[in-house]
């Protein structure tokens, strides 16, 4: 098991979306989280600002790219993860190297209240990200049930 299914209880799982850029992808995901009362109105501006200073794009084996944006716990009302897969990748800056870019086709947005939980979640995600078969299955999933079965 990679991720506790409870962290997807609000089912903010958007698949095979067409987005022009990372801002559009993050906006639709954050708006859906806010609509479900997972985050407050400060979440989206905070995530966009943090992404500029501390990018979260990661290049994975198999030509896949993911991003794991997150921000301060005071913007979170309920612990949750959000997910979006994209039909065509969008550019994110590379984590740890703001001068490099990654073509991201999957975004896992973290809405966690505790730094300890955030660290543990990042570890779980990083473990999952090293499993190329699982990541390709996630990228190709088309239903929420299929996505949840894969990550669980």
From TrEMBL:
UniProt keyword terms in alphabetical order: Sugar transport, Transport
Look up keyword Repressor and say if it applies: no
Gene3D superfamilies xref list? Mannitol-specific EII, Chain A
Q: Where is the PTS EIIA type-2 domain?
A: 6-152
- PROSITE patterns to which the protein is assigned, alphabetical: PTS_EIIA_TYPE_2
Task: Report the InterPro entries cross-referenced here.
Answer: PTrfase/Anion_transptr, PTS_EIIA_type-2_dom, PTS_SugarTrans_NitroReg
Per UniProt, what is one Pfam family of this protein? PTS_EIIA_2
* Name of this protein: PTS sugar transporter subunit IIA
């Amino acid at each position: 098991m990679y991720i506790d299914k409870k962290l997807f209880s609000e089912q903010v799982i958007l698949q095979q979306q067409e987005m022009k850029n990372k801002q559009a992808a993050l906006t639709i995901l954050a708006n859906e989280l806010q609509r479900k009362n997972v985050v407050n109105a400060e979440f989206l501006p905070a995530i966009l600002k943090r992404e500029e200073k501390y990018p979260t794009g990661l290049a994975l084996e198999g030509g896949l790219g993911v991003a794991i944006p997150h921000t301060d716990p005071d913007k979170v009302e309920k612990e949750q993860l959000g997910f979006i897969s994209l039909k065509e990748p969008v550019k994110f800056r590379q984590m740890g190297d703001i001068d490099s870019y990654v073509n991201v086709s999957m975004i896992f947005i973290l809405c966690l209240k505790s730094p300890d939980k955030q660290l543990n979640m990042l570890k779980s995600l990083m473990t999952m990200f090293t499993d190329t078969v699982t990541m390709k299955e996630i990228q190709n999933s088309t239903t929420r049930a299929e996505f949840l079965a894969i990550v669980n």
